[in-house]
Amino acid sequence: MATRLATDFQPPAWVVDESVNRLVSFLNHVLMSEPEALARLARQKGQRIELVWERVHLQLSPTPAGLLERGHFDGFDLRLTVTEQSPISLASSLARGDKPKVRIEGDVQLAAEVNWLIDHVRWDAEEDLARLIGDAAAHTLAQTAHKALEALRGFVARRPGADLRRGSAA
User: Fold this and answer.
1) With the CA atoms of 104, 106, 108 and 109 taken in that order, what torsion angle do they form, in degrees rounded to the nearest 10?
2) pLDDT at 165
3) 166 Rama sector, left if φ>0, alpha if ψ -120 to 50, beta otherwise
4) What does the alpha-carbon distance between residue 116 and residue 37 come to, in Å, rounded to a whole number?
5) Calculated CA dihedral for residues 76, 50, 14, 53, nearest 10 degrees
6) H-helix segments, the chain
7) d(CA 45, CA 68)
8) Listed residue (88, 81, 41) closest to 58, CA to CA
9) What is the helix (H) or strand (E) element at residue 64, kind and residue range?
10) Which residues contact 66 (CB under 8 A, 6 or more apart)?
11) Closest Cα to residue 51, out of 25, 81, 29?
12) Domain ranges in the chain?
């Protein structure tokens, strides 16, 4: 029932559009903390990257500054399609720290750069939080969040059939 509700639910278009804008802003915020990521993306300026999951199609293009901007284009240089259809299964996979299964089409070099970004660029939430509330409080909150995430990962790993799904990677 929950899976069906999650897959049938369609938010209004303006909610999706604004969420995508916020996601792109967040990605750029994270990228700005990693000079190597900016340099790698700047070399790919003007390339057309399309991320697809179910009904969501996100088109991005690297800028000369090494950031990402939303695009509206026909065709693509690289298309990454998340193959997991269930939002709950996708969330479970991410909670375990696994990369989602993705079908890759297009430019191999661009795909390698995107893969490097996924493997090496991380958001330092504690550092951002410290700017707002101070180092000690941010450290305490980050430790609490880390423990909660580990508990969630343990819960997901103990679900019946969790080992079977993990071993079925394509």
Assistant:
1) -120
2) 47
3) alpha
4) 8
5) 130
6) 2-8, 13-31, 35-42, 87-95, 108-120, 125-133, 135-157, 162-166
7) 9
8) 81
9) none
10) 31, 37, 38, 39, 40, 41, 42
11) 81
12) 2-122, 124-170
Degrees (nearest 5) of the Cα angle 79, 83, 89?
A: 140
Buried b (16+ CB within 10 A) or exposed e, 23-48: ebeebbebbeebeebbebbeebeebb
Q: Please give the Cα distance from 49 to 111 (Å, whole number).
A: 9
Q: What does residue 15 show for φ and ψ, rounded to 5 degrees?
A: -70, -45
The one-digit pLDDT tens for each residue of the chain (170 residues) are 555 655 577 788 898 889 889 999 999 999 999 999 999 999 999 999 999 988 788 999 999 999 999 988 999 999 999 988 777 777 777 766 677 888 999 999 999 999 999 888 887 777 878 888 888 888 888 889 888 878 877 887 777 665 544 444 44
Q: Does domain 2-122 have CATH number 3.30.1050?
A: yes
Q: Distance (Å, rounded) from C-alpha 28 to C-alpha 50?
A: 16
Specify the pLDDT at position 106.
95
The continuous run of DSSP H or E covering 81 comes out as strand 78-82
